[in-house]
Amino acid sequence: MTDLVRDAAQSGIVIFHEEVARDGAQGKTLLTGAQRSAIAKRQSAIFGPQACRQLVFNAGFPSIGKEEFEAVRLVIDEVDECYVGAAGRAQRADADILLKAVKGARHGRIFIAVPVSTRMCETLLHMNPDECLARALDVVRYILDRSDGAFVDVALADATRADPGFVAEASEALTNAGASMIILCDTVGSLFPNEAGEFFRNLKSRTGDAVSFIAHMHNDLGFGLVNTLEALRAGIFGLTSSWLSLGERSGMPATEQLLFVLGHEPELLLRKLGVRDQIWFSQPNLRGIPPIARYVSQATGVPLTTTTPIVGQGVNSISTGTPFTDPSVFQPFDPQAVLGIPRQVLLTPLASSRVIAAVAQRLHLDLSPAETEICLRWVKSEAYMRRVPLIDDEDFCFFVSNLRAAKRHDTTEPSFNMEDVRRPHMVASQ
Predict the structure, then answer these.
(1) pLDDT digits over 120-137, tens only?
(2) Are 79 and 41 in contact (CB under 8 A)?
(3) How far apart are the first and last CA of the chain?
(4) Which residues does 71 contact at the CB level (< 8 Å), separation at least 6?
(5) Contact, 241 vs 255, CB < 8 A?
(6) What's the predicted TM-score (pTM) here?
(7) How far is CA 298 from CA 32, 71, 235, 293, in A?
(8) What are the backbone angles phi and psi of residue 225, rounded to the nearest 5°?
(9) How confident is the prediction for the chain on average, in pLDDT?
(10) What is the rounded distance in angstroms from the CA atom of residue 411 to the CA atom of residue 396?
């Protein structure tokens, strides 16, 4: 049986290793089996017919317990568009559970984790690195002897703080034993970008072409994404990420960011990243990114903030007069054209008369110049009075309605107390 994602990575095609279900749970979130299945299917749609060659979805850690096993099993049963796998420790007891979890999968994978740094080996297993490697080799062979077609990937925990020579030796030995891909983990997220690039280049130079790697970076210092790109620059085409950056402690590279960075204008990758431009079988559908991000946010309760890159509430929003004149001057890409995110003009204390007029037009309110100026003063005053950064459409419409009602009773120049046209709940909240 051919390992499609390994072949893709070996030929220089980028593969995504999605961790929102497993590592995301360590970020204090929980996805049901149905939610995991929905994410896997929607993410597969971004890659289209090539999903089985570019996407691996880690469905979870079934040895946690009955409920987790059932959640993983549901994904295995329902998703066949991409590779789906289950993760566990490098021990035979976990291996038996993993084999049951992925049994019958069309594109099944098993992931086992083993520490390789001296400190992590002693802390987790009370062994030295050589003993840990021997255990991992035994479990790989055990799984392959009993598997009905699933591939085995091995995660080397704390690889970036281990002896580089030992990591290379372990990678070669595990590959020779039948492991498909070797996952290199910056388990505590301690690498700086220059260190990451050097680590991956050094490891590539120490191992043969048969060894295929996946980079698994954490975001503790904020370098998860850039370190993942350093891995790609070094010739490692397996990349791990998680939607909304969900993962242990400070999380991982955000899938939405990694997908966008590599999928938008891939023809420019050589100039921008020093990466060959033919890393895709076909152009990914980037418009699929925002709906998945919103779904994950709703399912986990993790909010999309105003400043969340690529999918946040601030993307393609305008609240000041300067960007309103020509939004393209203030954007690195067109969110409407690329991601399908429509332009939003919002009312904040930074509004200008042009912003007021644009919002009024969107709400089908035909304001006169005098009304526009009154509304502008009200928006600024109201925001500070209520101590809120945004005035919503409903309150704005209510103000305009009361403004016009006041004008109908006074044919002279409009002059009134703004307190008279505030909605009752506004006054009560003061």
Answers:
(1) 999 999 999 999 999 999
(2) yes
(3) 68
(4) 21, 31, 32, 33, 36, 59, 60
(5) yes
(6) 0.90
(7) 13, 18, 36, 9
(8) -70, -50
(9) 92
(10) 23
